[in-house]
UniProtKB/TrEMBL annotation:
InterPro entries: Cyt_P450, Cyt_P450_sf. One of its GO terms (molecular function) is heme binding. This is Cytochrome P450. Belongs to the cytochrome P450 family.
Amino acid sequence: MYLILVSILSILYIVYLIIKKEKNLPPGPTDYSIPIFGHLFSLGKHPQETLLKWCQNRQSDIIHCYFGQKLVIVLNNYDLIKQAFLDDNYSARAQPFIFE
């Protein structure tokens, strides 16, 4: 009896993790990610090329994806990257030499 209850609750939790939507996020590669693993299995052997294709498919320079359970925001534009690194929110960090 308890095994059936635990199984049903586990399945419902996994379904919830798959279909939940985050608000105020840039577009992602797909509408769902695998719980615990995220989009890691979708990256393939050349993750940088896969991330670039995801940006092109969504026609956006900013996308989100999950590496495991960690949310990652991917920037695919020099100006956006520079703005993110030089923003006051990152002022506790030394300025990268590449932008000097």
